[in-house]
Write a structure and sequence with these properties.
With about 375 residues, this protein is mostly helical. It has helices spanning about 20-50, 65-85, 95-125, 135-155, 170-195, 210-230, 240-270, 270-280, 285-305, 310-335, 350-365; strands at about 340-345, 345. It has one domain (about 30-365). Keywords: Membrane, Transmembrane, Transmembrane helix.
Amino acid sequence: MAATTGIEPPDETQVAPPSAATTTADSRWVAFGLANIAIVVALSLATWYLLADPTTSPWNFYPLPFNAALFWAILFIVFIGFNAEFHGFDRWGQPARGLAILACTAVFAVVVTWLLGSGLGAIFPDFAGSREGGLGYFTGALFVLFGFGTWVMVVLNWQHWPWTALGMKQPLIGLCEIAFVAVPTLALYVVLGLPAVSSSIADPPMSVDTVLGWFYSIVVSVILTGQTLDNWPWKLFGGGGRTALAATIGNVVVGTGIYFIMVPLAEFLVGPTATTELGSVLHQFPAQIGVCWAFWMIFWANGFGNRFAPPIRAVLTFALAIGTFLLYYRFAAQHVLHEPAVADGLYGNALGFIDWLVLWTLIYVVGFGSIGLSRLR
């Protein structure tokens, strides 16, 4: 959702100072964004205390199956919002549209989590919800990690190619994307994801921590290039299949580079003692930093109208991500969210609550259209 300034070239013969109305309009986007973030945080905290908080929630959903349902909920929003562009939902006014999106998302997330944990889990023990530590729920939800990369990339980087080139319209575009992209997504999951969490495979190609850290870095590359940088540099390849191929290869290369940069950055941010305690788990921390960056890139595009030039957006959202990472792990996870310690001075798992912020951003800001904030829009 790129913002446009609407500023015309100045008339050299008539230059007037900006009016009060213009100044107010120019600054209104800041108030709109801050109001959005306040509401998203409030909604996230209220529902967290009800559904997930280890001390206040009446249920024992933390961390699983809560996180599993959360991942499936975000993927459902990707399906109906990114791939299908809210076809069908966009015919309804607010708040009916937002309520329908919220209800459908919740039902999809709960049903898929239950079917995998209790249905498929009864046949294949790796998926069983009764697996120690809720690992069976995580096994099924790990599929979503790869879907965040593939289904989002065909929208942000491929620009719905080749379906638009074939003259298709929604919802056929979305249905084709969901169906055809499921094949490579499933292949990635079977080759890289499932072996890392299967109890029957002793020597997987990658550990689960490396899979999380590396592939989430690719997801970050997809969002960074496709949304924050306006599909640069892939759009330089001429569009269509050439841009799609360049983006696919390029995001793997850029994402791998992000992963190798994020590992030492994570060591620096968590400190030497926590680094030693975490051991190999540190290799998933590029995902922990990455989800903070993904949140701010998504929120900046939708809550703040994607203001500023692409390079400034990239730097600004990354700076906000680092601040969010430190605030979460050093303070909020322990004192606000009541999550357990994971290492010296570190608490929680950012792939839980920060993704919860992402979900509520997509529901409130996008699904509900920031209802109640029309005067600030």
